[in-house]
Amino acid sequence: MARMWRTVKMCCVLMILPWNVTELYRIMKPGGWGIMQVPIDSKRNETYEDWSITSEAEREKHFWQKDHVRLYGLNYPKRLAEAGFNVEVVDFSKEMPAEQFERYRIPKEELLYVVRKA
User: Fold this and answer.
1) What is the mean pLDDT of residues 87-102?
2) Residue 24 contacts residue 7 (beta carbons within 8 Å)
3) CA distance 12 to 67
4) CB atoms within 10 A of CB 108
5) Full set of structural domains in the chain with CATH
6) pLDDT at residue number 86
7) d(C-alpha 114, C-alpha 9), whole Å
8) pTM here?
9) How far apart are the first and last CA of the chain?
10) Which residues pair with 7 in a beta bridge?
């Protein structure tokens, strides 16, 4: 039997991996939860993937970094939900005082994507 995890924290990793979030859903135990952070292009509605782009220079041009294989768009929470997760989007700007944003250098537009597996 494959190993399963109760908690999964992915910070700036999913855009590098060739597989998608359905694999994370598969390895998470029922009742498990996770935080799935990725850079998101807020000007892009849909996630951009093009598997024909393989050179580091072209990947950096299209996906912002040479080791990325996709650039997530505003549909990121929907992609997590389509994988089977219950998704909660947490807006830190409503949870933390402004001085903590400055102290910890958290971008004010940063959202936290918390997922749960039923």
Assistant:
1) 86
2) no
3) 11
4) 11
5) 5-116 (3.40.50.150)
6) 98
7) 9
8) 0.86
9) 20
10) 33
Neighbour tally for 76: CB within 10 Å? 23
Token output for 1: 């039997």
**Residues facing residue 8 across a β-bridge:** 34
Distance between CA atoms of residues 5 and 97, nearest Å: 33
| Degrees to nearest 5, angle at CA 67 with 61 and 68 | 70
Report the candidate in 66, 65, 81 with the shortest Cα–Cα distance to residue 114: 81
Q: What are phi and psi of 16, to 5 degrees?
A: -100, -30
The answer to whether 69 touches 59, Cβ cutoff 8 Å, is: yes
Q: Return mean pLDDT, the chain.
A: 91
pLDDT confidence of residue 1: 56
